[in-house]
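Hypothesis: this fold can be encoded by more than one sequence.
Test: take the structure tokens below, design a sequence, compare later.
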């Protein structure tokens, strides 16, 4: 996923929920590895790794609806 494809969410827990619903190509589930906020772009990047095959994936979220209100 690229940052242009960032998913609009209304809370951090929505980001975690989204990732928990995603499956790797191998059908494994993702585990969150790290999180980075980009305040100027109102984006949140979460790096995750497949619990099964260890493939890494970046998830991008648009946090403009709640950033600064946390
Ligand atoms: Zn996998």
């Amino acid at each position: 996923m690229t940052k242009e494809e960032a998913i609009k969410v209304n809370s951090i827990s929505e980001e975690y929920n989204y990732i928990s619903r995603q499956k790797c190509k191998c059908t494994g589930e993702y585990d969150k590895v790290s999180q980075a906020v980009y305040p100027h772009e109102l984006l949140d990047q979460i790096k995750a790794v497949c619990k099964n095959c260890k493939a890494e994936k970046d998830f991008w979220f648009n946090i403009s609806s709640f950033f600064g209100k946390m």
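DSSP finds one helix and four strands in the chain. The pocket of zinc ion is lined by residues 24, 26, 28, 50, 52-53, 55 (CB under 6 Å).
Hypothesis status: open.
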